[in-house]
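Q: I'm writing a short explainer about Phosphogluconate dehydratase for a general audience and would like to include a description of its predicted shape. Could you first generate the structure from this sequence?
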Amino acid sequence: MSNLHDTVHRVTERIVANSRDSRKRYLDLMERERERGPDRNSLGCSNLAHGFAAALEDKPAIKAGHAPNLAIVTSYNDMLSAHQPYGAYPPQMKVWAREVGATAQVAGATPAMCDGVTQGQDGMELSLFSRDAIALSTAIAMSHAMYDGMALLGICDKIVPGLVMGALRFGHIPGIFIPSGPMPSGIANKEKQKVRQLYAEGKVGRDELLESESASYHSPGTCTFYGTANSNQMMMEMMGLHVPGAAFVPPNTPLRQALTRAAVHRLVEIADKPEFAMARTCDEKAFVNAVVGLLATGGSTNHAIHLPAMARSAGIALDWNDVSELSSAVPLIARVYPNGSGDVNHFHAAGGMGYVVGELLEAGLAHRDIVTVWGGDLSDYAKEPWLDGETLAWREVGASGDDTMLRPASDPFQADGGMRLVEGNLGRACFKTSAVDPERYTIEAPCRVFDSQVAVVESFKAGELDRDVVVVVRFQGPRANGMPELHKLTPPLGVLQDRGYKVALVTDGRMSGASGKVPAAIHCVPEALGGGPLARLRDGDVVRLCATTGSLSTDADLSGREPAVQSEEHEGVGRELYAMFRLGADSAERGASAMLAAGGL
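A: Of course. Here's the predicted structure. Afterward I'll give you a sentence or two in plain language.
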């Protein structure tokens, strides 16, 4: 691609060089897997009979072995609004597979946590590691050697990364991701945010808060703010793993059904074509495109953890230096709540992913020449799907329909992307800039150190934080407690900032994909457990956080101090079962995965 931006080219080449040995090992493994299977005809008769015993309509076709048999790996449950529509998918998908002479079976299911339900609760300590459990569940589903292609049904926070990680271990066959779309927009986002802060200040009660939240999260479909779930869908488009334009079409609509049908037909079409295997579609260029899309749209900070883990599963080494350098070149061209006023439905109506992809390609900021599941290149994703009568078609997007939400790369909201690396004598961390006022890019103040988000909230309620302060929350890393999202911190810190104080957060934990206006250094490595620098900070130490210079430091001499010791226990709601994940997890920058670390990946 002749007009590729120098920075994008340079970072891609560095990733290729750093990944050369591990990528070769991965591709060699996938080639060996392709050569030995899947071939249902090579299964023993008893094995094969078990595999199609319950497939009453499709038994003759599977038995004959002349047509592709698709694996449906589903994360359906009807508590999680984004995944509730998936309940209807498998019966429909089987019919659509038969239309083109193929078959489909539900190969297995994966866990599907809702971080919105577990936010601030003990169960959130299982959330990040549920990604490894999802990857392992995907591997179990695919272990039966019955399938020629993978239809991957998942949307939300850890679910898509987990599906990618598991499916890539079967990367010798093709895989297509199939979303279900966002719920209709509820109350205005500013109103929702206002009620949350009023509740944090004690000015409204639980009944008013619950009424507000219920008006926001109110029906089947993905939550409409631009957090991790919707960032997942953006990335699947940027990597070419969707049917073009599938990300944000609403559920239970004729267009959504047509896109899912097209995904099944396309998966059948490419099932016997090695060039469309996931090992080929998920290459270095595809992962760079995912990072570029994340930065250009101000996506979730959680992907600073997920992207390295996903890439490692394909033998690709990607780190925060790569993300930060790309951020220096990629402009912010979208503002979607919490970084703007409109949600993903407004984003989609204004031009959505088709507009974003087109702008990035025109500016030379994305790799056009990736291998997509659709068969062309990334330019297929610079259009929007529509129904011409009953026929699925694609058309040009045109100019932005709302320049408060989408702008051209030549006139962006800000010149660089939404995420920066900060580092110094307190470690390395991520700073999400896309929703932070540039006047707050630098915060220097005495710190107050906490070991839990509950303690922060209690201190806020007691009026102890009404001053310029850097709030440090430690022992929140993957090895300490599974790295839960620190959702409870957002309203009180926002209140303090609105009162005129200089406020920042420094933590080895995660903030929500919906984290917003308060400056924050998150995912700090090395984590406090094991003696990381945050374990040596004390109340009153002056901490400086600066996104402009990329610094995270203190003037205090930490060398002679004994590190603090974690005091909380992690039992109840199954946390004791996840001790092996905590013990084996590697750093956030490596992906915070016990599974990958144990597997030598």
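A: For your explainer, you could say: The first strand starts at residue 69 and ends at 74.
Q: Perfect, that's easy to follow.
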